[in-house]
Design a protein that fits this description.
The complex is a heterotrimer of chains A (about 325), B (about 500) and C (about 150). Chain A has about 325 residues and is of the alpha/beta class. Chain A folds into two domains: about 30-120 and about 245-310, D-Maltodextrin-Binding Protein, domain 2; about 125-220, D-Maltodextrin-Binding Protein, domain 2, CATH 3.40.190.10. In chain A, about 45% of the residues lie in helices and about 20% in strands. In chain B, strands 1-2 form a two-stranded antiparallel sheet. Classes of the chains: A alpha/beta (about 325), B mainly alpha (about 500), C mainly alpha (about 150).
Chain lengths: ~325, ~500, ~150
């Protein structure tokens, strides 16, 4: 009996190690993980959180480098020219990779990107300062209806997740707010904290980073975020808004199916780690597990929704 | 905050890390194209296996060192090693050309240490109240700050005002090329995919400053820098004396640097420009700024190192990174499980204070390390035969520009800009106004568009742009900077006329 | 050669004219932007550029002088320096970073060498060049993980 258990355990161990060697045999050294933005944003933070778990599980370093430019377009346009041997990966962001190529020729198309995993999203959230007169979402909507255009709301960039959220929200509520674009979430939050604007279209991560200094009026999730049990969802308040910015990782499209599969499995494994999930949740992210097999369906659905929203908003023709 | 944290910071291991970090940072900073951001990004994974405080000390030391190292290339090659050292070239290179390069490097070291210390002590003692500065600065204030920075063009281009202004405007147009930062248009690429990424600041700096120097160097057989026959071995004493005489300038520039560093949208290059503008405004008759005036170097170098401490104030207190290196440190903190933001000083106080003390220690270490490396850098630049110096620097510009975005087209753009910059400089359009426009253009544009949007929404455009006290203050300083030199010049000519009679 | 046809005079006029053209091109391009926010700034700056460059052109026309110009110095050295660096860039994806670097280095070295070549300088300069290049290459590629071709 004991012998059989040992044998079984031994076989399992052998299987595990052989699987592990198959998986990591294809990684021949440190991996170049390109973030097509500057440091400090949500893409950077989540990549930094992945780093130690990846190293621990697969023994290789993820080396994060930044290639900012054109709201990510520069990086994505260069991705398919890089080597597809699995040693180079790049972060991708929705809705950027859908909206940018739909607006103008930015050197890449959404379909060209070989996305193998979408691992998290940052749900949209409407944020005000802790001492703001807006106690609830209804207070803000009422003010915006009474004084059309006077409610200024900061956000990161134009034709971005924040901007789409603002347009969608205005349409749903019938209120008129003014969107003030800033360079990145950090600048938009600074403007909010400095009371240059009355509210900010941000993400749940803003609530996590700023703590008591801000109040979330609502989050665009199906259910409440575990970090903010007291903050209602838009759905609860009667507005059908669920969404945010989705982030994933892509390989150059020259990568073989095996390499893509290997990467998809590796990131799935990191994403399945309880400690990793907890760190992500603590930082305000919401996790997502879309691997390579489910990617096409996921992307098709997202793309349709974003293009519809952007068209209605007049951002694309 | 107590003495324990200082002792935690001052372990032998941490001292070694600080020394290593400062030395490595100085070298990184002195190579045009290698930025503190890059060095830190590469080092972050190493710090995961370290104790958080030691990791932070290493990162902080590299950052501090890099800002000082940027001065070497600025002084000896007329090429800012980092964007923060742009204004160091104004007086640094002329000094080096006169044969005072060693003095200039030593001055930069004293000034950097002074600025770094004042910035770090502001972080240690005044962080929570000072973080309010970051919040008081709205879009309009950023707009006026950039206008103030641009007013420096007027005083930089005496006798060539129109050409200087045209250069500045051209620089601002260069800054808009590519995908617009906050709106969603693609501008001025004329269909080219290469131009979508726009003109990066570091690549443009290398092109506009370094390539013309190389082109001029090869054309004639003269030496690169003038060397005194009897090379004085060390000029540290002389530099120290000069620094002591300019105490007021050093302290004022350090305070300017700390304050500008706190502003998340500005950074070291703006701090250096503002400090330079201020010291130049108060110039005494015997001081000739732009022709190798030691006070110019000291103002810029103390200001840009003060932004290290200043920049960490919003990073640690508000969770809003002031500069890209700050953002990387913020990311490293997050992975270590340290929550930044308003409660950080209470909850994670010990790590924060150990880090701040570490920063102070690293800044002090910069004095011996910086003087030593500086002397070596100066000696090698003057003794290396020109025939080797030129291709070595040329190779460095290629590899450095490539490394910014791993792009060969960036290198080609850099070379083309270099040739362009050399040609137009030959006909009176100097590089500095163009670079000022490039750096300040985006700040001006974003501030203007945001201020206009908010002002129009609240039906108060005039009040938005002219009614806010900080804006009024900056406008007043700008006007003084512009009008005072004209007024003084007129008075001087009148005096001369009277004397002639 | 009269002042009004000197290199400095003609060159100054041409550069001023170039900057005016750049301003005009900006105005032309800005007309096609869809977002008013991205239009205002380039248009304002382009107008400033055209006015200032125009004024400098005008003053130079009214008061010709021979200030400015390329100055003395050898043209083949300047051109060799820049061209060798450009050639290195275009060859880099094909032949790799180091060999391309050698081309740029060789061009610069020959362009900057004003003294007579001796056996000693040949050996010394070329070998120090090799050391510099290999050191930088190793630093960037292996320490900083820059994917050099």
């Amino acid at each position: 009996m004991l012998r059989r258990t040992i044998l079984k355990a031994g076989a399992a161990l052998a299987l595990v190690t052989s699987l592990a060697t198959v998986a990591s045999a294809e990684l021949s050294g440190p991996v170049n993980y390109i973030i097509p933005f500057g440091p400090g944003g949500e893409s950077d933070i989540s990549a930094r959180l992945q780093q130690p778990f990846f190293k621990e599980k697969f023994g290789q370093d993820l080396v994060v480098s930044y290639q900012p430019g054109g709201g990510g377009a520069v990086g994505w346009a260069s991705l398919n020219g890089l080597s597809g041997d699995g040693q180079t990966i790049m972060g991708v962001n929705l809705p950027h990779i859908v909206i940018k190529p739909a607006q103008k020729d930015v050197g890449f198309k959404t379909e060209d990107l070989n996305i193998f995993h979408m691992f998290h999203f940052t749900p949209d959230a409407l944020v005000v300062t802790a001492d703001s007169p807006y106690q609830t979402l209804e207070d803000l909507v009422a003010d915006a209806k009474a004084n059309p255009g006077q409610v200024t709301i900061s956000g990161s960039g134009k034709a971005s997740a924040n901007h789409l959220a603002q347009i969608k929200f205005d349409k749903m509520t019938g209120a008129t707010t003014t969107y003030v674009p800033f360079k990145g979430t950090g600048a938009a939050v600074t403007a909010l904290l400095g009371k240059q604007v009355k509210a900010e279209w941000g993400y749940t991560t803003v609530g996590a980073a700023q703590g008591d200094a801000v109040r979330l009026l609502a989050v665009a999730m199906e259910e409440r975020h575990p970090l903010f049990p007291d903050v209602p969802t838009f759905k609860e308040l009667g507005y059908d808004m669920v969404g945010g910015a989705y982030r994933g990782i892509a390989l150059p499209n020259t990568a073989s199916d095996e390499t893509t599969k290997m990467w998809s499995d590796m990131i799935s494994e990191v994403n399945g780690d309880e400690a990793f999930r907890q760190k992500m949740l603590d930082a305000g992210f919401a996790l997502l597990d879309v691997d390579a097999a489910e990617m096409d369906a996921f992307m098709a659905e997202r793309k349709e929704e974003y293009l519809k929203d952007a068209r209605e908003a007049g951002l694309i023709k | 905050m107590n003495f324990d944290h200082f002792l935690t910071a001052a372990t032998p291991f941490n001292l070694c890390l600080a020394l290593f970090g400062v030395a490595a940072g100085t070298i990184v900073g002195s190579i045009p194209g290698l930025t503190a951001t890059m060095a830190l990004a590469v080092l972050v994974p190493i710090t995961f296996s370290m104790d958080p405080a030691s990791a932070l000390i290493l990162l902080g030391a590299i950052y501090t060192g890099a800002l000082y190292g940027g001065a070497y290339a600025a002084i000896l090659l007329n090429t800012p090693g980092t964007p923060s050292a742009i204004a160091t070239t104004f007086d640094g290179y002329p000094m080096a050309k006169k044969g005072d390069g060693d003095l200039a490097v030593a001055l930069a070291c004293f000034a950097s240490v002074c600025g770094g210390l004042i910035g770090a002590f502001a972080l240690l003692l005044l962080a929570p109240p000072l973080s309010k500065v970051a919040l008081a600065f709205g879009p309009v204030e950023y707009f006026w700050l950039s206008v103030f920075g641009l007013s420096l063009i007027a005083s930089l281009s005496t006798g060539n005002l129109m050409k200087g202004l045209a250069g500045g405007a051209f620089g601002m147009i260069l800054s808009t090329v590519g995908v617009a930062e906050i709106s969603a248009d693609i501008r001025l690429t004329f269909g080219s995919q290469t131009l979508i990424s726009g003109f990066g600041v570091v690549g443009t700096l290398i092109g506009l400053y370094c390539i013309p120097v190389l082109i001029d160097l090869v054309a004639v057989p003269d030496r690169h820098l003038k060397v005194e026959k009897d090379v004085k071995s060390v000029r540290i004493g002389e530099a120290f004396g000069l620094a002591m005489r300019s105490k007021f300038n050093l302290v004022r520039s350090s305070i300017i640097g700390t304050l500008v560093g706190i502003l998340p949208g500005a950074g070291g290059s703006v701090a250096g420009l503002v400090a330079y503008s201020e010291v130049k405004r108060g110039a005494k008759p015997h001081q000739k700024f732009g022709e190798g005036e030691p006070d110019g170097i000291m103002a810029v170098e103390s200001a840009n190192n003060a932004t290290v401490g200043g920049g960490f104030i919003p990073t640690l207190v508000l969770g809003i990174p002031g500069t890209p290196p700050d953002a990387i440190v913020l990311g490293a903190l997050l992975v270590q499980g340290v929550r930044t933001g308003p409660t950080m000083f209470q909850q994670s106080g010990s790590i924060v204070y150990t880090f701040i003390y570490g920063l102070i220690i690293a800044t002090i270490m910069m004095l011996p390390a910086g003087l030593l490396i500086g002397r070596y850098a100066y000696k090698s630049i003057v003794t290396i035969p020109k025939a080797v110096l030129v291709p070595a620097v040329g190779f460095m510009t290629i590899i450095g520009t490539f490394a910014i975005r791993n792009s060969i087209s960036d290198v080609v753009i850099m070379l083309c800009l270099g040739v362009f910059g050399w040609v137009v400089a030959r006909f009176g359009f100097a590089a500095s106004p163009i670079v000022l426009g490039l750096i300040l253009g985006p700040i001006a544009e974003q501030g203007f568009v945001q201020g206009w949007t908010i002002g129009a929404a609240t039906n108060n455009l005039a009040g938005m742009f002219f009614g806010r006290p900080i804006s009024q203050g900056i406008i007043a300083f700008t006007l003084i900077t512009l009008i005072l030199p004209v007024f003084m010049a007129r008075r001087q000519t009148k005096l001369l006329e009277r004397n002639a009679k | 050669m009269s002042v009004s046809t000197s290199q400095g005079q003609i060159g100054s006029l041409l550069t001023s004219a170039f900057f005016m053209l750049a301003g005009a091109a900006t105005l032309y391009d800005a007309a096609s932007y869809t977002d008013r926010d991205s239009q205002v700034f380039p248009q304002t700056v382009a107008v400033i550029l055209i006015i200032t460059a125009g004024l400098s052109l005008l003053t130079r026309l009214l008061r010709p002088s021979d200030r400015g110009g390329f100055g003395a110095g050898s043209w083949w050295r300047r051109i060799l320096l820049v061209v060798s660096m450009l050639v290195a860039c275009f060859l880099m994806p094909g032949i790799g970073f180091l060999p391309a670097g050698v081309i740029a280095f060789a061009g610069g070295l020959i362009a900057a060498m004003h003294d007579k070549w001796t056996t000693r300088t040949v050996l010394l300069y070329w070998s120090s060049g090799a050391v510099v290049m290999v050191c930088f290459f190793a630093l960037f590629k292996y320490v900083l993980n820059v994917p050099l071709p």
